[in-house]
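Listing S7. Sequence submitted for prediction.
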Amino acid sequence: MSRNKNIVWTISEDYSDVNTNSFLSETPYKLALLGISHKLYNKFAIEKFLSFHINSKTNYKDLKMIMALAIENATREKLFEFRPGTVDFFEEFLKSLKHKYEFLEPTSISEELERAYYSSFLNKPRIVNGSLEEMLNEIENFHSLGTYELLNFLKNLYQKYFHVYDTMPTTDKVEKFIEKVKSKQIINPMVVNVKEVEISDLEKFNIESAEFTQSIYEDLKEVIDKSNIKSGAKDYSAIVERRYGKSIGRPNEIKKLESEICTGIHENVKLHFTNGEYTMKDSFFKAQADEVHTKNLEKYRADELHFKRATINLKEVLKNSILKNSEQYNIRSTMGELVASEIWKSLYSNNQKVFKRNYSDDLGDISVDILLDSSASQTVRQSEVAIEAFIIAEALTSLNIDTRVISFNNFFDRMIIKTYRDYHDSKLKNSEIFKFQGSGSNRDGLAIKLITNLIEKNPHDRKFLIILSDGKPNDETDLGLIGMADLGVENYVDEIATFDTYNSVMKARLMGINVLGVFTGLEEDLETEKKIFGSDFAYITDLKRFHSIVGIFFKAIANKIN
């Protein structure tokens, strides 16, 4: 499954999550076609079209096959031009198809169409009659790369041959919708304001104008052209900054850190630290990030009372567990929580201690790091991840426990490390967590190695690390595609990735860090998670239990200490 997604991601250059079975087949060739379709057409509109008008039908396989063949007919040559290596995928696909129909007769309309469509490539006679022959002729004459033209073609085809599309919008309504999109289109093709086109309109009509699609595509294309990826250049700084935000930190310090931790299977991986600030305030990726941020906040506000109660409950659990035997007191300091009544002292004297900080004796002071896997597998639950991480951070910081929240994912040869809040940040910084967004792949072992290195440098007596992950470390960099530059980074998959992540967890524990793994992935990956974290992990099918699991973890640690 991971390799399948990587093929789609590499060709589409869109690292958001993807359904790899959209074309009824997960052969490398069909996955490559899916990738090029996401690059050339508007993915959102096509997915909505599938969801509302195909997947719900009893003959959805036949309808999907028609869509797949129409898209293939229009994009095949573009795919071969963009990724010459996919010609080999096509030849392998034809071999398997030839073998299939040498021994089996078609048992459905979709198989009849498949055999007939590829017959010329297999040097076989076309065996199809009547309306299917007529439909195939229409498919073979379709060559448009416009999203509207594609969906309108499919709508007309389905209405003509299946009589199941009475609920589709009329041509007049579609035309009016396109005019609405055109009238709101931004002149500068690099500026895409996603709010300009109402999402409700997209869901209602499921068709988007080719012009609007093009403005988004041009933004992506410029990023790729500037990075010179197709020419084989190995510096992806421009595209990484454009997608994730500008780099923070001193270059010499980052290089030193890379030399310390990017070793072995992680050799040549580069670190990109960011806080999510964009140089181009009106870029497509900034607009996309803002939209995700808004959705995450809206989901929190929709049930804010419940989430605030959860925060209070977790705070009480923490007070009665890891802080139970600690004597806490406040002292005046030059950092911490501002005391408004003391501000005058800094204005009229040399006394700058206008803040208060909480200190505790007996068991020593505490730091908590929350490490979030922000790979593409998390896109389906990114709001839930953001909310739960926010609840935990709110509970911890309200008790003056030094808390850091970081996410990680991989993109090309980079590991993206985004810091939402650091130990000494104001409690107000917790709201940055709502900017959490999933994309790309994940080198869990390297991320844990990095955070361990950072934790080791802090002076706290008790150190906690909470890792939220899908339990499937995966970063496949070599897909064997001609035209894709050699990243110089080893594949990070299967047992090698699992063992490396396990090693990183063990080393963190040997350094005295209390590590909890929280698993949000598929049940089939549960054994991998057990191998990595041993007994100190929790499997949750409902992310709303994340903060509760963390509370139980702290209770267990406190019991061991006491």
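Caption to Listing S7: primary sequence and predicted structure tokens for the chain studied. The chain has three domains: 2-177, 284-326+362-561, 329-361. The first strand starts at residue 270 and ends at 274.
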